[in-house]
Amino acid sequence: MVISGKDRGKKGKVIDVLPVANKIVVEGINIAKKHVRPKKEGEKGQIVELPKAFDVSNAKVICGKCKKAARVGYNIIESSDKKKKEKVRICKKCGQEL
Q1: 93: buried, middle or exposed (CB in 10 Å: 19+, 13-18, 0-12)?
Q2: Could you give the angle at the alpha carbon of 80 between the alpha carbons of 79 and 84, nearest 5°?
């Protein structure tokens, strides 16, 4: 769910994640028009609409249990042999595992 910008309040599926740039691409959000030149003779140029990347801080994850946009927290779970530790994402509102 987008929390700021021109598409505020809209929900969509994450298509691509760019961790180096700290950005995400979401389906149907932050649509930009790109003018494409004709490639072959006799073909017409066109305007294509593409979703563009935006900063991850402008989006929230939607919890599967409470169905609300929430911040993400982490819990560290130890296995039975206490040698392995696993980091698990949780919803900050209801505490359910994401």
Answers
A1: middle
A2: 35
| Strands of 39-83, DSSP E | 46-51, 54-55, 61-62, 69-70, 72-78
Residues 12 and 30 in one domain: yes
Does 50 share its domain with 98?
Answer: no
Residue 40: which domain range?
Answer: 1-59
Q: What is the pLDDT along the chain (98 residues), one digit of tens a residue?
A: 999 888 899 999 999 999 999 999 999 999 999 999 998 888 899 999 999 999 999 999 998 888 888 888 898 888 777 778 888 888 888 888 88
Model confidence, pTM: 0.72
